[in-house]
Design a protein that fits this description.
Strand 32 and strand 33 form a beta hairpin. Helices cover 12% and strands 36% of the residues. By secondary structure, the chain is mostly beta strands.
């Protein structure tokens, strides 16, 4: 991923959104915003393409994708076998889907590298575990489907023993050790890079790496330098000065030569990746030039700019390979860049997934030309005789035998239809030409990668066709292309209750549905008890790829962002002085936020001294602040097991240690979120067991709840980077600049306006010593002045308005005033985001139908029946004591409970729990019975 952190933006994402909903939103936006008005569109000038087999051109190296940078493949490993294999087929199987020709993977180093952290093979120098992580597994799966795929390795983070830089002998050792593991796993890597997007490399280091690879038996591994955003100029310049360095490098790989568009709104996709230059100096070396990382866009709507970039990488910059980041969107929806990849696969509990438009855009090249084919320069250029991509572009490649050929043509910037003529000569085949096409702005998937007409060349070897705007076409004399298709399970949130004893987990791998954000958490044999546990493995702070992580510490998370009222519990064991703990109502900031310390959660931690604390992390990146705490002397000591439980009931938060409630606090900051495990530092050996997420009706939950419903308000974090005119989106006027988790502007009168719907809103800003005073108004009312000055800095709530009509749409406007506190050094306005509150949805109460009120029944086992919302969890109580707990209502809404009713009078009640949120209903009207 691109590392110009000062240009990064953070996006909000506190709510669970099903894959189907994401697809509908993205494609609806793309269709409206990208599609031109075709009615009455003026035809554009035609283009004649001379497809001459005698033309010169560079050799095509392939299209690929990246697993790493990081954690973006995590949930794929937990998918049911049938769906996991289907996804892998869509990615790697020739003639089926994306048909990827290059797979680039992270060497993994325990540090967070964008969407998560991946486990290193070498926690301490010399102690090598070649079974660690999942990247080798993915490479094996790719090779199984396509033995010709090229593998490419690159480092983002590295274990702490490497030191402060990869550009050292320790860094070289780690690379050779990692390649040794690859070899042990039966993998041969064709390419190796250095350190992803990190400056400081020298030609001497690359020459040392080349020598080390040769010495350790990896002479066949080619080096790609330098995986930076300025590689073409920097590497080509160094190669021109150093012949040995030039000899060591087999390809020059630059990141985002068409521009980085991670935070770009979908509405702007028609205007990005319109130019993809390299440099004349780089081209003159005749060393292959690669877009060794490209993409960072929506798996669906990003297909349109991808179609353009895959062509003009070569037309503009003579790049012969392009590698998309990432390969699959298989991380939780609230992490950064969660919707990017070729396939969305973030629901392993259902097996649901979605094959994106980007998959089929990739197929338009990979299913029609293979690595080793040759570009034909005379048949590669811009439509309409243009000198840049104004109405479209085209590339043509021929097979090594010089007979077959394929042309890929895109019309993403065209405003009307245009005719193309392809005149074939120079020994190329004049067989019938097969045409495949994709409507890049259609949500109708039958129009994606659709086989169309077969064109028969005329006597001069020419075929002619009219092209429509916003289409991608492949013309080919080859056959064997297919559009794969499988049945996909329906999308569904992960339901409560949930538990994992880790006994079925694979040793050395992450536990089911847990995704590590920093450090390494793997399933290992328990210490001091039988069975398997989760263990934190990282012994020292990793060599982080991200230099801006504020307070790194190890934690792993899982579950649903919709979980609201529940109890999370786990057994924990302090192996070293420090603390261990559990997380609840956890959510990452989403959007393009990568810092794993900028996160929301509540935690319950227990130290080896017996000290416990309920803590809150507020998203600022600062250490979680204690809300309350105390000491349990019986829980003091190392290497002993204790149970922690954290219970959420609306704004009430309870902490329990070893089954005893030790404290509570009231806090309204976060209403829902995932669960997790956390360590107080890089304390390798800390263990966790028996993770359990219970509904509040579970008798094991040691909390007495107030009567009635429990429907806390939902709170949505709308990041400053969520831009647009819809609800929960920002619009800006003026000269706002972004970075560091906020956007800022010091021009008086410039405005930021949020459109939202809810009963309350809170403006969050990055307060610091150069910020000024802003005016904030809601729905155009009289502005309130908010002073953003702070001498300590950090994320802060600066304005709150409550009591709004939740049924109406509202606006909050932030205006820079150009004024300041006298102590401030500047007048900057800052917007980090807004917290929008919406009243909680009441869970419908079940109906207790049998037995009837005031009836006489036989004492003993009694059948109690009723109705509820299908899937609702029903708890039946007999005279106040739970008799049946969390019975799911069937798909028709019926439920039944067999309960023991003793002789005498009894009162029967039932209550429901939403399995997605954990919210409780009101109890049913009491049913009075006489049992005899």
């Amino acid at each position: 991923m691109y590392t110009h952190r000062d240009k990064r933006q953070a996006g909000g994402g506190d709510r669970f959104v099903a894959v189907a909903a994401v697809l509908a939103l993205i494609m609806a936006a793309a269709a409206v915003l990208l599609a031109p008005a075709r009615a009455g569109a003026t035809a554009l000038p035609g283009t004649s393409i001379a497809v001459n087999g005698q033309d010169s051109g560079r050799t095509f190296d392939g299209l690929g994708a990246i697993s790493g940078g990081g954690g973006n493949t995590r949930l794929l490993t937990d998918y049911p076998a049938a769906q996991r294999n289907a996804i892998l087929d869509y990615l790697f199987k020739p003639g089926y889907g994306a048909n990827l020709q290059i797979l680039k993977v992270e060497t993994s180093g325990d540090g967070n590298t964008t969407s998560g952290a991946e486990q290193t093979i070498e926690e301490t120098r010399g102690a090598i575990n070649c079974q660690a992580g999942y990247e080798f597994w993915l490479a094996q799966q790719a090779l199984k489907r396509n033995p010709h795929i090229k593998l490419y390795g690159l480092t983002w983070a590295a274990p702490g023993w490497v030191g402060s830089s990869m550009y050292t002998q320790n860094g070289i050792q780690y690379i050779t050790d990692w390649l040794g593991c690859a070899k042990q796993r039966g993998l041969t890597f064709a390419y190796m890079g250095g350190w992803n997007e990190k400056g400081g490399w020298t030609a001497a280091w690359w020459k040392d790496l080349r020598a080390a690879l040769d010495q350790h038996g990896f002479s066949g591994v080619k080096l790609v330098a330098a995986d930076q955003v300025s590689s073409f100029s920097d590497v080509s310049g160094a190669m021109a000065q150093d012949a040995d360095f030039a000899k060591a490098v087999s390809a020059i790989g630059e990141h985002y030569p068409c521009g980085w568009n991670g935070p770009t709104p979908i509405s702007d996709y028609p205007n990005v990746e319109t130019s993809c230059p390299s440099s004349q100096a780089a081209q003159a070396l005749n060393t292959p030039l690669w877009a060794s990382e490209q993409g960072s866009m929506s798996y669906n709507a990003g297909g349109l700019p991808m179609a353009r970039a895959d062509n003009i990488d070569y037309v503009d910059g003579r790049m012969t390979a392009s590698i998309n980041w990432p390969v699959v969107a298989s991380a939780y929806p609230d992490v950064g860049f969660a919707d990017q990849g070729l396939v969305m696969a973030n629901e392993p509990w259902t097996g649901s997934y979605d094959v994106g438009l980007s998959t089929w855009v990739t197929a338009h090249t990979t299913q029609f030309a293979q690595p080793g084919w040759q570009y034909l320069d005379g048949a590669s250029g811009y439509l309409g005789g243009q000198t840049s991509d104004q109405v479209g572009s085209y590339v043509t490649l021929k097979s090594p035998g010089g007979k077959d050929w394929s042309s890929v043509v895109e019309t993403t910037r065209a405003t009307g239809p245009q005719t193309v003529k392809l005149a074939v000569s120079g020994g190329l085949s004049t067989r019938p030409v097969h045409v495949w096409s994709t409507n890049l702005v259609s949500g109708d998937r039958s129009q994606w990668f659709a086989q169309g007409r077969t064109l028969v060349p005329d006597a001069h070897g020419t075929v002619t066709m009219t092209l429509q705007p916003n289409y991608l076409y492949s013309f080919t004399t080859t056959t064997g292309q297919h559009k794969g298709s499988t049945a996909v399970p329906a999308s569904k949130a992960l339901a409560l209750p949930y538990s994992d004893s880790f006994t079925t987990g694979t040793q050395g791998q992450q536990a089911r549905y847990l995704a590590t954000m920093e450090g390494a958490f793997t399933v290992e044999p328990c210490a001091g008890r039988a069975g398997k546990c989760v263990q934190m493995d990282t012994p020292a702070k990793p060599l982080e790829w991200q230099s801006n992580i504020q307070t790194p510490y190890p934690y792993t998370v899982g579950g649903s962002a919709a979980w609201s009222n529940y109890q999370v519990s786990a057994d924990v064991r302090n192996a070293k002085p420090g603390s261990v703990g559990i997380l609840g109502r956890q959510s990452n900031l989403g959007g393009t936020e990568e810092d794993p310390s900028r996160v929301h959660y509540y935690s319950l931690t227990l130290s080896d001294t017996g000290a416990w604390s309920i803590n809150r992390a507020d998203g600022s990146g600062k250490p979680a602040a204690s809300l309350t705490g105390g000491t349990v002397s019986s829980a003091a000591g190392l290497k002993t097991w204790h149970n922690l439980a954290l219970t959420f009931a609306g704004s009430l938060i309870y902490a329990s240690v070893d089954g005893t409630t030790v404290g509570s606090v009231t806090d309204t900051s976060f209403s829902a979120g995932k669960v997790g495990l956390v360590a107080g530092g890089y304390l390798a050996g800390e263990q966790y067991d028996n993770l359990k997420v219970s509904t509040l009706t579970d008798p094991a939950v040691p909390v007495t709840l107030p009567p009635g419903t429990h429907t806390p308000e939902s709170v949505t974090n709308v990041s400053y980077a969520t831009i647009g005119g819809a609800v929960n989106q920002w619009q800006y006027s003026g000269s706002w600049q972004s970075g560091g988790g906020n956007t800022w502007d010091d021009t008086a009168g410039d405005k930021a306006t949020l459109t939202f719907r809810g009963d309350g809103v809170t403006l969050q800003s990055m307060a610091n010593d150069s910020n000024g005073i802003v005016n904030v108004s809601v729905d155009g009312d009289s502005p309130t002045a908010a002073d953003l000055y702070s001498n300590s800095g950090g994320l802060a709530p600066v304005f709150t308005r409550t009591g709004l009509d939740p049924a109406k749409q509202h606006t909050m406007t932030v205006t820079a005033t150009g004024t300041k506190n006298p102590a401030s050094g500047g007048t900057f306005a800052s917007v980090a985001g807004a917290l929008v509150t919406v009243p909680g949805k009441v869970v419908s109460a079940p109906v207790l139908a049998k037995p009837a009120d005031n009836s006489s029944i036989h004492a003993g086992q009694v059948r109690i029946e009723g109705t509820a919302t299908p899937g609702e969890l029903i708890t039946v109580s007999v005279s106040g004591k739970p008799a049946c707990v969390n019975l799911p209502a069937d798909r028709h809404g019926n439920w039944r409970c067999g309960a023991h009713v003793p002789r005498g009078r009894a009162v029967l009640t039932a209550a429901g729990v939403d399995p997605v949120t954990g919210l409780m209903s009101a109890p049913t009207t009491p049913v009075h019975v006489l049992a005899s």
